[in-house]
């Protein structure tokens, strides 16, 4: 009995290879498309996270902005004794020559200055710094500076955008925050917060007139106490389309009018003077009455 072995013909093999090739091509195309989509979505998420991180960093600094004027009024030299005036003048002379502090609070605490040296620059004193090493000498206070600098992009990225862009950076000075010397910001390390920035604008809340203003010097005591900050950032998204982000930040300390401690001191001084005057007057009247009674008794005796 003879057995006949039948295999695949050449045509069948070629058809199978062709089908397998189409399947492999489809899988490869689908995989490449999925990878490209994942990369694009990840890049978009990174870009979206970058603006949120930048705003969160700014909000953290502004919410912890520090000045003693949130709790007490400025020191008033009027009505001081000569000894107190001499001490005040000594402190005032020291801080008037200080580029970072310019006033004293009622308790004699130096008051930091909010500065806007140039357009797109903002410098202020904050308690947002956190120690990275336990028991280190690092302060919880810091001077921070936000500013714009030319963007660090590749040549291909610049050509793709077609217009010059900037980057928002943050600098933090924590080594000697109460130094009277100007801070050399060029030697302070930069932290890049956002790329492809077109503009960075900030406005300050004028609580007296209830409006936002660009010039902090037009606000009463504005350079020493911040009530609110509105930031507007225009930047390019991953597809190089313009985006606009507007945020309002406020300090943690709610606004209230500190008590006028000088009023209480003057009232106490006036009360003391009045009490002393009344005491002296009563004593004099008592002496007079006693003398009169003595004279009357003498006449009766006669």
Could you walk me through the main structural features you see in this protein, from its secondary elements to its overall organization?
The chain is of the alpha+beta class. It folds into 2 domains: 12-63 and 115-252, no CATH class; 66-113, no CATH class. It contains 4 helices and 9 strands. The chain has helices spanning 10-63, 82-96, 155-161, 261-301, and strands at residues 101-104, 110-112, 122-126, 142-150, 166-173, 190-206, 211-213, 229-236, 242-249. Strands 3, 4, 5, 6, 7, 8 and 9 form a 7-stranded antiparallel beta sheet that branches. Strand 1 and strand 2 form a beta hairpin. The longest helix has 54 residues, at 10-63. The chain is elongated, with a radius of gyration of 37 Å. The chain starts with 9 loop residues before the first helix and ends with a helix. Mean pLDDT is 79; it is low at 282-302.
User: Can you write the helix and strand succession as a string?
Assistant: HHEEEEHEEEEEH
Q: What structural category characterises the helix and strand content?
A: alpha+beta
Number of alpha- plus pi-helical segments: 4
Tell me the helix content. Answer: 25-40%
Approximate strand percentage: 15-25%
What is the first-to-last residue Cα distance? 181 Å
Described by the principal axes of the CA atoms, the overall outline is: elongated
**Radius of gyration from the CA trace?**
37 Å
- What is the residue-mean pLDDT, rounded to a whole number? 79
Model regions low in confidence, pLDDT < 50 over at least 5 residues:
282-302
Largest sheet: 7 strands, antiparallel
The count of DSSP E runs of length 2 or more, i.e. the number of strands, is 9
Number of domains: 2
């Amino acid at each position: 009995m003879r057995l006949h072995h039948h295999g695949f013909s050449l045509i069948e093999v070629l058809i199978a290879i062709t089908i397998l090739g189409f399947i492999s091509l489809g899988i490869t195309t689908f995989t490449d498309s999925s990878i490209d989509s994942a990369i694009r979505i990840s890049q978009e998420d990174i870009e979206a996270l970058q603006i949120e991180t930048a705003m969160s960093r700014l909000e953290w600094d502004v919410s912890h902005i520090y000045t003693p004027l949130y709790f007490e009024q400025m020191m008033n030299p009027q009505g001081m004794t000569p000894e107190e005036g001499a001490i005040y003048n000594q402190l005032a002379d020291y801080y008037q020559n200080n580029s970072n502090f310019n006033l004293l609070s009622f308790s004699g605490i130096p008051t930091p200055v909010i500065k806007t040296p140039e357009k797109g620059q903002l410098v202020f004193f904050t308690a947002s710094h956190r120690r990275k090493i336990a028991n280190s000498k690092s302060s919880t206070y810091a001077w921070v500076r936000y500013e714009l600098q030319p963007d660090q992009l590749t040549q291909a990225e610049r050509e793709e955008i077609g217009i010059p862009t900037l980057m928002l950076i943050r600098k933090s000075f924590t080594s000697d925050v109460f130094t009277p010397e100007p801070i050399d910001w060029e030697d302070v390390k930069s932290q890049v917060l956002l790329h492809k920035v077109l503009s960075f604008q900030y406005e300050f809340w004028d609580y007296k007139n209830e409006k936002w203003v660009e010039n902090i010097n037009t606000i009463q005591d504005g350079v020493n106490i911040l009530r609110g900050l509105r930031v507007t950032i225009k930047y390019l998204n991953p597809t190089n389309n313009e985006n606009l982000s507007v945020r309002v930040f406020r300090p943690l300390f709610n606004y209230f009018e500190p008590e006028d401690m000088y009023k209480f001191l003057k009232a106490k001084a006036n009360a003391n003077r009045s009490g002393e005057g009344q005491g002296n007057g009563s004593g004099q009247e008592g002496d007079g009455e006693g003398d009169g009674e003595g004279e009357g008794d003498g006449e009766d005796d006669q």
